[in-house]
Amino acid sequence: MIEEARLERSDGGLVPVSDGWFVLNAADAPWWRSDEFGASCYFEREPFPQLGVRLKVLWPGQPNGMYHAEQAQEDFLVLSGECVLLIEGEERTLRRWDFVHCPPGTEHIFVGAGGGPCVILMVGARFPEEVLRYPVSDLARRHGASVEEETADPDVAYARFSEGENGPMPDGVLPW
Predict the structure, then answer these.
(1) What order of strands is seen across the sheet that includes strand 51-58?
(2) Which of 29, 112, 123, 148 falls between 20 and 30 A from 172, CA-CA?
(3) Sign of CA dihedral 23, 28, 29, 34
(4) Range with the poorest average pLDDT among 8-17, 79-88, 105-114, 138-147
């Protein structure tokens, strides 16, 4: 029988501190917020060993990060609002209930669009040694989401941005 995980308050929200199943409301989980990259809800202290899950909230014009590719599969579901998907050099407008599948190695990033926040459920496979690639992209540059020189180092890719801050769910972050 699998036991229920113990949840403790840390970094602005509840996090599992033991193995097992758990139920956690997004309003009670820790959030990270950045003026450049929106807000993220993390349902775990460290990424789960096999699967990472987060909610991402983007306001119009905000990318969720730098244009990149990972060695792991990722999938995304737009829960509300509108965003622009930059993927493999193409641009697609996404709306509520649009689903995006990215096989390993797919270059991509999301940029908030429309008249309000966009909420995206982000799910990705995990590997013990995560490998990322941040390619230079003229398309992503037009949206403020491209590195100047290709790199595999996240610290280099994000060096010019603030670190953001951890805390409880920001007021008004979820539109419903």
Answers:
(1) 99-102, 74-80, 118-125, 51-58, 38-42, 31-34, 165-167
(2) 123
(3) positive
(4) 8-17
Mean pLDDT to the nearest integer, 155-172 = 90
Predicted local confidence at residue 45, as pLDDT: 62
Question: For residue 69, what pLDDT is reported?
Answer: 97
End-to-end CA distance of the chain: 36
**pLDDT at 52 (0 to 100):** 86
